[in-house]
């Protein structure tokens, strides 16, 4: 009977786990790392971006996103949509072609790979014969023209990737054989039987696909970059490597010279015009800060209402219909890494009032953006409205904190806070890329927001804590600075009061060898509407702040470094107490993470300024690599201080380095002296496995501004194995974690049970241990570390709601290990619930960047510019849910074209209709498709039967 009951209990527990927990990687936020290809579908109104890692990403209206990943570890070099279809072709740098489709399944579209192909040449032929350099997706939707490095053009039938050898175009059929590679392929917009072939040497040939002969030769003298056939079919535009473009008349005979040649910037040195259209000439009239311009790719949308420019580190959309060509703010693909991300902080369920105030402050920072709506509108966003408002705050190396709307699929920028204005830095206020001399030519204008240049690496933000109820914010930096800010709807000028806190407390024999602290501005600081600093705490020595927490109800902020921790009263602007945790044998703690790279940083900044002042062409690639190397080196050194090297699973010596480094701080109202009287307290955990508890005495509310806050050390716990303490949680009499400050006062949480015994949960790198309070006697523990050498890297409390019952909810401890695994541990009995692999164990930066939400989701950096979002909850899942329909009728579908052979061709091929039949269950649409197929004449090169398509 006992066994039966136990089995029944386990079945119930397993069923409950299925209702509460489910791991999914849901969406990627940010800018794709190392983009390499761009394409736009006018009929679908979708944008496609390929990357060097083999990813393909599609974007439409905000919330419409798709992602695919090639099995091959190769870069995507080209992306091409098949006209008026939901299919696209990608070309990789291993010379393989891949066919993708957006297939409907249960009312939602999925991006699926449906075929792959590699050109094969005759036996013994060099690889250049079949190395693809240009791709043209024919308007029939059934052909791909593939230009190669050897100058040949191969014609392939899709989606089956069958080569039509009899229609291939070889160099033997051209007037000259020394033409180099095929640079460009374009179709005649009024006659799909004709295509233009552009060769690298400059020759342009108009070819008839039906007659299989050249109709016209256009001998350009400069190296060719791109070609464009005008909409009336009467002219061809060509752009060249010397910055010139030419207009050619399309006729029956060969052309001896161009009708019109022009160099937009006269005879001044100019880069090649890499893209040209009949309405727009794209050369480098814009300056993109610290970007490899050679990777610039352009498309235009809306005839042309906007210019979309993809550069190495950002996507810029320029409004071409408004004077001055302002930039349109992107609802997605925002470069999160405009300055390198150094930390992140997530706040769930933001109150509406705070949300509106932050939004209002952010809108004042966006007046330079265009008022036009986002021009890429393809697909339907079918995701439900977010159930709550969530904020993701990211700290950056330049001293900024950026607020992001993390409620839904799109990570939207809301507001940017800069802390640099509080300090004196070595930046030159007159050093600006836009400050060119009057009448300077060519007239360059800086656009985009990516700028990794940092005035001073000491400004870097390391810790953030926001109270969503009071509007108080505290941020801490690399040089031991802690700023306390409050939200103000009006601009204000005030002096920021500074307090120096000596964490060494006068101990002799220690000399700080790291960087100096930042110089505080003594004069009043003018702050725009938003979060405004009013108090500064400066730690001495100025080491990286490793722990930070804020209690806005008590008006207290606690902070910790590698030397100790302290408590500050920001209402009275007084230090309450300081505790030195430095081990006398720990000499490494006296060296700052920036001391070894400071000279490199200074030299790099000086080099940037010299380059800026001279208007010489920037060698972006080498500078960018040097900047990245320096940034990563700084991050590695900082991480060395924050996360010590892993050790074997054994008792640790007190002589280990960084044992005094403070890893976590926690405020709680609990029982410390006896079980009858609860009191405010502060808890601190160190790298050496030590936990300190301080009892706090707060004056009554009416005397809070006059009487001082006092503190007394009440407890000290030393873990047996001296494993670093990464988290502290106190559970009330019901085993529920204590609510956040002011949460109960706003009726958003139940009051904690103060009648039963409280429990202290200490989370170390190796185990979870529960102690009773106030006696601090061990009650239970769960050891995480086993033979695989797992270590806890991140831990946080989350609430998991059932997906079947709205009323049922459980609290749990979410844990990330150094193996990249996620665990959920039940509370208060600390039992392992579920375990999922999430991040590659080799991805140290991804593991270090992970942040959890209060409802079972999380974020981590998969690249310097992208967050991966995941969910452990069945109820709280944020993921794209999109539908892209087959474009049965486009803007030009009412215009039939009569071809020379007398056949009337319609803009949509038979296969478009067949695809719609296979992907839509609507009887109405099926009827429309059947009628369209019957009325449609046979396309140019024939259509395959329905069963042969898929």
Notes on the protein architecture:
The protein has about 950 residues and is mainly β. The protein has 8 helices and 65 strands. Strand 31 and strand 32 form a beta hairpin. Helix 6 runs antiparallel to helix 7 (about 925-935). It is elongated, with a radius of gyration of 32 Å. Residues about 1-10, about 290-295, about 430-440, about 595-650, about 890-910 and about 915-950 have low confidence and may be disordered. Its main location: cytoplasm. GO terms for molecular function: GTPase activator activity; myosin II binding. Belongs to the WD repeat L(2)GL family.
Provide a concise account of the structure shown.
The protein is mostly beta strands and 950 residues long. A hairpin with a 5-residue loop joins strand 18 (224-229) and strand 19 (235-240). It is elongated and about 100 Å long.
